[in-house]
Design goal:
Number of strands: 17
Distance between the termini: 30 Å
Strand content: 15-25%
Strand order of the largest sheet: 4-5-9-10-11-13-14-17
Number of helices: 12
Oligomer: single chain
Order of helices and strands: EHEHEEEEEHEHEHHEEHEHEHHEHEEHE
Largest sheet: 8 strands, mixed
Radius of gyration: 20 Å
Helix content: 25-40%
Bound molecules: iron/sulfur cluster
Shape: globular
């Protein structure tokens, strides 16, 4: 798919103290793309748009370049011990994306330029873990592969983890930009999980991301390069032909991804669709013709921390999804491991 180019790039002044910040400034200036130096507090003023739909589109074409200030990483259960970002957000426009809500009205993209400081913080977190293997998720707030052609940061991080005895990296992607990563010295320490879904979900809700076929081809390339491979199936949705289409998905994985054919272990993470009332508001403003099923009367409320709740599938539907998808996986990949279903 076509690689992302922003319409405007905003540099925090500190970003230019780092080689990657200066490299990006030169790169975008040479392309004639508008570059602005601004404090992070004023970023919103530089993103145009007369209404929610326009500002959303403009935010997605706005790239902020800055150092990552907090280097104390959050816990990232169930997928890893900790998470750290190389980027926030991505050029895709998945209608259900949780960043719709967490980033508010102007969900711009960010790349972090202090990569050496971030990697030094990784070592500190490993040191605290008494010689145990420590896992790090690098894609919980965005898709680092989607901006890799600009930064090269993921390649650097993968090679760094390749040298670590007790550190393991986990990456998730919906993009097909992995070519520059295929010949890295990863030492099997980075697990890629390709985010996959039924055709209907990718086509209708995951705009500006790799297609169903591109993702399967990408999974084959990445796993053939020796990376441990896994799949995140999310969000799993129930619609008219859901059973038939999820069956097609797992059949295609089985027939097209060579390492799975050879019986190498593969992991699956399964996440059902859910939404919050705030997310529904954002989604309806940005995608007025959305086909996303957000009918509260057909969902159950799941309460979380601080009195917040989400709408999830009712227990019987959830159980049906779990049993059906698990059986599709185990019938085709007896050596597979389902890490979690949520
Ligand atoms: S690819 Fe991931 S981060 Fe990007 S819009 Fe879709 S869900 Fe959000």
């Amino acid at each position: 798919m076509k690689q992302y180019t922003p319409d405007r790039v905003i540099f925090e002044p500190d970003a230019l103290n780092y080689p990657l910040g200066r490299k990006l400034q030169n790169h975008f200036r040479s392309l004639g793309i508008k570059t602005i130096i601004s404090s992070i507090h004023n970023v919103h003023r530089n993103i145009p748009g007369k209404n929610e739909k326009e500002t959303y589109a403009a935010a997605k074409k706005t790239l902020v370049v800055r150092p990552k200030k907090s280097l104390s990483f959050d816990v990232c259960k169930p997928s890893a011990d900790y998470e750290f970002p190389l980027v926030t957000n991505c050029p895709g426009s998945c209608e259900y994306c949780y960043l719709q809500t967490t980033q508010g009205k102007k969900p711009y993209l960010t790349v972090y330029v202090n990569i050496d400081e971030i990697l030094a913080a990784v070592l500190k977190h490993i040191d605290k873990n008494n010689g145990q293997i420590t896992t790090f998720e690098v894609a919980s707030t965005g898709d680092p592969l989607s901006l890799e052609h600009l930064t090269g940061s993921l390649a650097k991080t993968i090679e760094f983890f390749g040298t670590l005895e007790n550190g393991r990296l986990r990456v998730v992607t919906k993009f097909d930009n992995a070519d520059p990563l295929l010949n890295l010295r990863h030492n099997g320490h980075t697990r890629f999980r390709v985010s996959i879904n039924a055709r209907y979900v990718i086509k209708n809700f995951e705009h500006n991301t790799a297609s169903f076929d591109e993702r399967i081809e990408e999974a084959d390339k990445i796993s053939s390069a020796g990376y441990p491979i896994g799949f995140i199936v999310a969000p799993i949705m129930v619609y008219e032909d859901w059973q038939m289409e999820y069956r097609e998905l797992f059949d295609r994985l089985k027939s097209q991804v060579d390492v799975i054919k050879s019986g190498r272990p593969v992991t699956f993470e399964l996440i059902q669709h859910r939404f919050t009332p705030i997310a529904k508001g954002f989604i309806l403003n940005r995608f007025p013709n959305t086909k996303l099923d957000m009918d509260e009367t057909r969902r159950s409320m799941k309460w979380g921390k601080y009195g917040k709740f989400k709408y999830v599938y009712p227990k019987e539907t959830s159980q049906e999804i779990k049993e059906y998808i698990s059986s599709l996986i185990y019938e085709r990949f007896p050596a597979a491991q389902i890490d979690y279903f949520t």
